[in-house]
Amino acid sequence: MNTLFDLTGKTALVTGSSRGLGYAFAEGLAQAGAKVILNGLNEEMLNAAVDRLQKQGYQAQGVKFDVTDEAAVITAFDQLSAQGNEIDILMNNAGIQFRQSMVELKLEDWQRVLDINLTGAFLVGREAAKRMIRCAKGGKIINIGSLTSQAARATVAPYTAAKGGIKMLTKSMAAEWAEFNIQTNAIGPGYIVTDMNNALVENKEFDAWVKSSNPSRRWGLPGELAGTAVYLSSSASDYVNGQIIYVDGGWLAVL
After folding, report:
1. CA 52/CA 248 separation, integer angstroms
2. Are the C-beta atoms of 189 and 248 separated by less than 8 Å?
3. Is 23 a known active-site residue?
4. Which of 2, 19, 61, 178 measures 20 to 30 Å from 205, CA to CA?
5. Residue ranges of the chain whose pLDDT lies below 70
6. What pLDDT is attached to residue 195?
């Protein structure tokens, strides 16, 4: 059974992985045996994250590029290929949140959230799939959705639209690339304690709402998503395609 989840010999690229959920995903894949390539825009933070993994004895390196910059994405993949790093596993994790009522929402803020959360996943996914198809070895693509892939909440319209788009982008990728032995799935995290959510965790009213509305009565932790990431990256999920798995403590079950 252990061999089903063994990622030894695989190379995984995790976007937006210098901290938070992205780092937890990268660490989990590394623990399962994969070589991990971390990505971010802040070079100092990226290097520090790589260093932390290397000090634990894992194979890790960093690559800096903006997921919304098509030319930069293509260049990064070409450079990785030139280094002998063919991507077997891609986790499209890069994302941002922006809270604003829709009647006050500026177009540039709407567009920025969609560009990073949705268009970035398309661009990086497309380039990864091109090379997976060319190598004829198949591969795994895991997009990061959200509870808002399924349920809307006020003041996060662009994020909700983007994560709803991730759900259908995942299905579209599965429909087009399954014949090449590429499995594309998504993870929908619930309310997780991360840097991005610190303000919400510290807000007593919101914290109480999260705990009261979830049958688990608590926030999730980043490491609690790692098992799902390893499963969707491994041969254990070879006939799972186009799905979104919600890791939310049961929040959607009682919605």
Report:
1. 28
2. yes
3. no
4. 19
5. none
6. 85
